[in-house]
Amino acid sequence: MKLKILIGLFIFLSLSSCSRYYYAPALQNVPLIKEEGDFNFIGSIGTSDEVKMFDFQTAYAITDHIPITFNYMYGKGGDFSTQNAGKVNYFELGSGYTFPFKEGKIRVGAFGGFGLGKQYHVYPDSPTMLTARINQYKYYLQPAIGLHFNAFELILSNEISYLAFTFNPNNTGTEDGLVKIMDNPRSILIEPGVTVRFGWKSVKLQAQIVNCYSLSKTDMPFETSKSSIGVILNLGKGFKAIP
């Protein structure tokens, strides 16, 4: 009986979620590389309070210490058939510096880059559909430290970023959250994350949790956490299709 009550409560809370958010954390790219030619590819699905996301990432080591990183995220929340939804396409390009300790078992790195996203929102409760188009820009710095073994990795990271929005002058939406970010279009964010990978040397499952805190204004319409799970492939030197 208690189990049925808990299941019913969970379903009710899931269906009743109607918050609208204008920012959600992207998957943190933490390529603690070992040598030149290392190449990682990650595909992941993530969820937060309202937004469901798909992330794709790559990282290529141009030297033993310097990777180039690229990230893409697609996020969607709500239901467009009821004119109450939003979506985002977001891209990041970055680089950094990593170095190993203890024969590569401990790896430390710092990464930085630039992100660009485009959002589209539709709003209900109107004879004519209300819309908003928003551009988001992000500059970030992300230190990380990780334990690395062939079958297991644990990485702690902490992204510090400057986030800014610009707005299409033809927007017609007047939703409270939209008004709030129009009044406060710039934020400083801190996003600590934990990444766990397990599997084989060349293929691992990855789980990541990222929290988001605004240091500029605490009640912004931003997602406060993101959980994701995916697969990481090491396609660089020594890659083996079968572990």
Describe the model.
It is a single chain. With 243 residues, this protein is mostly beta strands. The chain contains two helices and eleven strands, in the order αβββββββαββββ. It has helices spanning 2-16, 176-183, and strands at 39-47, 52-61, 67-79, 84-101, 106-123, 130-148, 152-167, 186-199, 203-211, 213-214, 225-234. The longest helix is centred in the first third of the chain and has 15 residues, at 2-16. Mean pLDDT is 88; it is low at 1-17 and 238-243.
Separate helix tally: 2
Order of helices and strands: HEEEEEEEHEEEE
Structural category is: mainly beta
How would you describe the shape? Answer: elongated
Distance between the termini: 46 Å
The share of residues in helices is under 10%
- How large, in whole angstroms, is the Cα Rg? 20 Å
Oligomer: single chain
Low-confidence stretches at least 5 residues in length (pLDDT < 50)? 1-17, 238-243
